[in-house]
Amino acid sequence: MTPTRRTLLGAAGGMLGTAALARGATAQSFPFAPNQRYPDPAVQVLDPSFAKYRIYSSTLEQVATGMRWAEGPAYFPEGGYLLCSDIPNNRIMKFDEKDNSFTVFRGPANYANGNARDRQGRLVTCEHSVTRRVTRTEKDGSVTVLADSFEGKRLNAPNDIVVRADETIWFTDPLFGINGEWEGSRAQPEQPTTNVYRIGTDGKLAAVITDLVNPNGLAFSPDEKKLYVVEWRGTPNRSIWSYDVNADGTVGNKTKLIDAADQGALDGFKVDRDGNLWCGWGSNGALEPEARDVGGRRVHQLRGKSEDLDGVMVFNPQGKPIGFIRLPERCANLTFGGPKNNRLYMTSSHSLYALYVEAHGAV
């Protein structure tokens, strides 16, 4: 039998639903086979303190594939499923743990990027191009617009989002979704700065951080007294900044917690109950200044090898790297899920990966 795209995807992922294949699943996918040896060598202990989070008999799984750029995972324990964005394909995908199906949850999805579950179990979403707004999907399926402008001007491109225990909603607003045509439509920014915003329980929008250049992922410490934010540009390397959260919802005491290596790229991340930061990691795309001979051509190659950088870097609360999970694709974002909140889901380029760990998500 001549292999078809469907049979190839089925062999590679083993868990793609027919709806995912039916609607634009034309992105490249990669054959993947779980490691047969325990402990899985993909889980690397960089510091002895990380060893307690590794499950000896747990291995990395590719649970879905066929996306173009996977982002924004959010887990819903009531239904036992995970939603994630496939941004260039303009859709939100659903992975159901009960039957391992992978189907289209919403499409078109206004180029959704970051997603989160609020305290009532509703989906909140960053629509980071065209509509350029933050929405909430109600239990009846209707959509409520929570924010689309600030001080009379349109938001830039809402990116990542988190819901605090007090039910305030925090999100980043860089330029990525309006910088080109790949993840939406090119547009001129109206905001003078790229901010981190807070939506109060009264619905009012406040800019809590205005001095970061393209803020990206964000998360709170387990006690929610600190806010961590990735700055994509503006420092020599990508960084995570730490802020103290004040009682009135403002932040202060800006401190650099993590400075990525000049080859590394911080993106989305989550915090576990012990305060460790589990960070999407990969090449930042920087090129070597000098071209090298490759097959008779002078080529400016990447600084660092993608295969050495792609994965999840884990930092302790003091910002020290303690563990690394190697992935065959660049990891943009991740979340904790599963019935016990100890299954790490990683949205990585074309695929969704999962790994059981001895850690639990802080929220």
UniProtKB/TrEMBL annotation:
Signal peptide: 1-22
Organism: Teichococcus aerophilus
Protein keywords: Hydrolase, Signal
Domain of life: Bacteria
UniProt-recorded name of the protein: SMP-30/gluconolactonase/LRE family protein
Entries under Pfam families matching the protein: SGL
InterPro entries: 6-blade_b-propeller_TolB-like, SGL, SMP-30/CGR1_Lactonase, TAT_signal
Stored SUPFAM superfamilies: Calcium-dependent phosphotriesterase (SSF63829)
Keyword Signal: yes
SMP-30/Gluconolactonase/LRE-like region domain boundaries: 69-350
Keyword Lyase carried by entry: no
Transmembrane segments: none
